[in-house]
Amino acid sequence: MKDSKLIKAIEKLSKSDLKRFREFVYSPFFNKRKTVTDLFDFIEKYAPNFEHKKLTQEYASKYIFPEEPYNPDAIIKLQSRLFKLLELFIYHHFKSEKLPDKEIALMQFYDENSLSTHFKNIYKRVQKVQQDYPYRDALYHYHQFRIEENYHMYLAGKYDDGKGDIHYEEVTKMLEIFYLSEKLTQLCLMINRQGTAKIDYNMVLMKEILNFLQNSEYKEIPVIALWHEALLLLTDKKIEHYIKLKNLLKEHGVTINTLEQRMLYTYLENCSKSFFPVRQQYYEELFDRYKMQLEDGVMYINGFLLPVIFRNIVTVALNLNQLDWIAQFLDHNKDKIAPEYKGREDPYNYCLARLYCKQSKFDAVLDIIDNPSFNDTKFGVRVLRTQVYYEKRKTHASMFEDMINSFRRFLFAQQKFTPNDQIQPYRDFVNIINKIYNTLRKDQQRLDDIEQQINETPILPEGAWLLEKLNELR
Predict the structure, then answer these.
(1) Is the pTM of this model over 0.70?
(2) Which residues are CB-contacts of 442 (< 8 A; sequence separation ≥ 6)?
């Protein structure tokens, strides 16, 4: 019973949701069977974990039918009925109040029962519901199509004298907007998936839609403009499409939900390296996109940042020497790292230590990463410690040399657990900083060779810092 779909769904309800479900089950409008309420009472006793050894069909039977022998079929039927009630509860309780489903159902009822005054009133009300909906995405246009379609049916049934439009044109327009916006979205998703999963999709009507939109006023509608430009970027891969999509996101990104905005920003990110091959230009472009997403709230999932996103933002800003901005970012987002992440303080402390390193506060860096409460022992922390010991090499030369050897042993051990393409950037970092350490000042040929190696290494942690240390020897 613990593994039944009923229990698996109930255990996802919060304490307050479970209380509301109890009221739902006990409502005679939804349920008139006492045996179903008894089954709910039996299950509720074992909330919130639902792991008790007595949570079984046999014990449920004894609770519900104390005078009858155990009948598994009877319990299975009750579980099925309670599960259907649960699904009905989920629909009523969790559906968005911002969607016009209720108003559309009322329009249909009033039309079918010839309640014209009621119909006209609800038609006015549903326009207000639509106006208050926060986005102008495909879902909005789908509901607008449904609304106008019902209004057309109302006019056709009550006032059709064979003359006039009776709302055909508006219905068709709403349908076309919905179809185009959703079709463009799906085409983008398929093309993006095709590139990563090696699937050969049949892109039905893609060429026809692109040709149609060339001279159509529909491409001025924000949701269509966004996904149309994204499709052009994915298929044509020209920088003008990149720039236009980025500008459209600045202007109209808030008209679609954050999930769709993230998708479009991902398309920009996937293409940006080919458009900005110079490392500095790439970081500047990436930093600009990060700022856009932070300002619009796109980076946040339920108000929180994923640790990897938190680190990436700081890494890019450090490469651009945006130290004041980083300090403000860390202060503002210290408590906004996803709470489900174990050791959520570590990403913040790691990024703060990197900021201190950039500010030459090397003892403050060691205070953070040597603190027993700091549990981040990944590659990046070893890079940071290597940087600190290099900066303190005049008084801690042996510590730097020991760190290089320790880092190399760590990387060798990690080969068993980590793909080579993830280890190689750190091998390159260790080799290059060690070369710099063993290079004499003014040895121009060796310095030039190391600089060329840095510039030609595609992925290199702290590449800007390595160039800075190199240039100090010139």
Answers:
(1) yes
(2) 473, 474
